[in-house]
């Protein structure tokens, strides 16, 4: 099956500023792709180019095989978009908004059903101006679904929302994937990417610095798992001496990097044999967030090269 | 153009507008306040030298020429003889924005020679009180001179030596017009201008800033459909507010206007022009602030100089020439021709000007207003 989104050598310049610098990626149909990066990394520029709202300076972009800039008309009937901060006509109610989009697209969705799906049915008769930030975003999501889209673009859909609204939107994204739609998500929340995405690309200063499944990225760029135990510093010295593992002590606990899972068993029996007092054993894995913060930091220091297409 | 999408967008416009009490107030109630205000406070603007258009029906007899020369010598008026029949003169003056006119009747010279009394007729425009007053004064003065000279020359102080020349006055147009009559087309024009201009300039720039246009660009709605829905709304609004103003003028102030279907094209093409112009002003500006500025620069001269509150005929010549380049002048003048003077042929010319200008501005607005950035 051809990719839902194909981007190759994409460049976008605004005057002398290069917002997007030769990026390349593909999104497989029916998957959730998260475009992850700090503010100003080039996420919104990229997603707007994919939606046909901006013209690329260079490179090739195809969404469902169409060029978004020149084939906007046919493409827009097949995609759904929620912008970063969804805005609509102040005096129009949520239900009227869905009816409006339904008439524009000439589809036959049931407004009540659609609003229920985004948990906004109780606000069906409220005007847009009276909705909270989260409710506005939910309405944007509902409108983006009126044309039964094959690909959904969500640009930071949960930024600034309370945890409850965020979870509701996550649920919708999961259901979109279950229905076989492709979801292109930009976010600066690592948790969001890790929870929802099949594939993640980390973008910084307009370049992709890492990509893969969340697990792949953690494996490739993360630190090994750690075992942590509350114990006196002598234990660190003992473990290094006896097992040759890198252990260090801090604030009343000892941390040991685990090259492999099985190392944990050897370390625990060594602790037991040592006769030193110990408590609270735990292992810690790095999250995508830890990796992200480190990668972005290293790129800013100049010690990390971006993935530049060959 | 797709009817379903246009209809859906029209519904959005109607709802947005009718749910906004301030906007409704300004569109419907404000003109009534204006019509009452100006109806009560009659005001007019004067000018220094007035052109006095003259029909000399005495075919250049010596006394009539002497009379006109004497008038010219007063320097209050400058005489301009025109070739119009006396019967059509009143309408001719109305059509040519001329505030005053004079008819010297056939047989003026003969009457003068034979001591029979004869009247010259002065036509005045009540809206141009200052220039009319000056001209009437000059005519009175010259008539007086003539009579005194005539009495001295022909019969001394004897009996039967009464003044031979008299003055009768009548008003410009086919009948008597009052300020309120002119005010109705003027204020309908005023609201055709202001309602769409202020709203569209604001909407076009702020929707772009807020990203609403970008969202609409992702739907099948086209820019011409979007603009057409707004035009439709403002045509509707104009019909309602024109009805209210005509009602208020006729019932509160006893205005006399002729209502024919000839008014309708102006109530359609006027909003068509100004919705497009508002959109154009909003589209060429980069920010809502600049848009408001451009909108004001375009709107304000038209608000006062197109015959809204003051008839163009009461303006000094330079200003009058300027008002002829303002599109609203043709809307108001056309409505004046239909509603007051019953001069359909000139109304058609006005209508043609508005239609052509409207088509050009609509095309420019659709072209220059962008849903999306480069």
Describe the SSE topology.
The complex is a heterodimer of chains A (about 300) and B (about 375).
Chain A: E1 5-14, E2 17-27, E3 32-36, H1 43-51, E4 58-63, H2 72-76, E5 79-82, H3 94-105, H4 111-117, H5 133-144, E6 151-155, H6 163-178, E7 182-187, H7 190-196, E8 199-204, E9 207-212, H8 214-221, E10 226-230, H9 234-243, E11 247-250, E12 253-257, H10 263-274, E13 279-284, H11 288-301
Parallel strand pairs in A: 3-7, 3-8, 5-6, 6-7
Antiparallel strand pairs in A: 1-2, 1-4, 8-9, 10-12, 10-13, 11-12
Chain B: H1 3-18, H2 21-40, E1 50-56, H3 62-73, E2 77-81, H4 86-95, E3 100-104, H5 108-113, E4 118-124, H6 129-155, E5 165-171, H7 179-210, H8 212-217, H9 223-253, H10 264-284, H11 288-305, H12 317-323, H13 327-341, H14 344-368
Parallel strand pairs in B: 1-2, 1-3, 4-5
Antiparallel strand pairs in B: 3-4
